[in-house]
Amino acid sequence: MDSALLKTKTALVTAGPTYEPIDPVRFIGNYSSGKMGFSIAEVLAENGANVVLLTGPSNETVKNPNIQRVDVTTSEDMYKKGMEYFSTSDITVCAAAVADYKPTQVSSEKIKKEDEVFTIELTKTIDILNEFGKIKKKGQILVGFALETNNELENAKAKLSKKNLDFIVLNSLNDENAGFQHDTNKVTFIDINNDIQRFELKSKKEVAKDIVEKIITIASD
Ligand code: CTP
Fold it and tell me: For residue 128, is it within any domain?
């Protein structure tokens, strides 16, 4: 990997899940471990980049001193902090599993069980990746992930152009060892030239290396 190019670069990586509060003791979350985002941050830092790792709740730990870890809990916190760092970031990779919806109202007191059926109204969260895409300037590289169950390639391509990305990492659900809570992942890259690269099942660290290599190729163009 020709990493000289990353030595002068600043990177922002989002990772992990978000927790959307319902009341003081409950939240809506997901099973994301943060492993994919943490691995990308490590590989970028190992190649000399200065990295801000913006993460939701995760048990993963940061090893490289060139990574500044910023912890957040909710999608709104991740959006606000992300906006602080995005404009000065040369490379941004959104690997976080941000909740798509959050409770419309957050109860300030613990909700008591009363009725047989309890309904929570949910409101769409801000799509952080999409907001970054809107304000992206020439020379900034933006990478997103997609998880699709049908029309995988077509949906991923649509997301790539709608969110103004340089390339998108499509997670395959066709392998039982890929994705959430696993140490391995199986991905396909699609870039703006419609170049499609399919990879075998490999460790998230190896997937992170492939992602960083693709970033370096784009940055060298
Ligand atoms: N993402 C984000 N903020 C959100 C939701 C998603 O930044 N509120 C980013 C993720 O980090 C990831 C990509 O968007 O890079 C994932 O999008 P995905 O969940 O696959 O699809 P959506 O765009 O949310 O659309 P849909 O759920 O309809 O497939």
Answer: yes
Tell me which residue range forms the domain holding 210.
Answer: 3-106+118-220
**Domain for residue 112, yes or no?**
no
List, by residue number, the catalytic residues. 30
- In short, whether 146's Cβ falls inside 6 Å of ligand 1 is yes
User: What's the average model confidence in pLDDT over 131-152?
Assistant: 95
In a domain, 193, yes or no: yes
Reported residue count of the chain is 221
Residue (of 174, 168, 163) closest to 197 by Cα position: 168
Kindly tell me if the per-residue pLDDT of 179 is higher than 70. no
Determine whether the shortest distance from the Cβ of 145 to ligand 1 is under 6 A. Answer: yes
In whole angstroms, give the CA distance from residue 41 to residue 118: 40
Determine the pLDDT at residue 2.
64
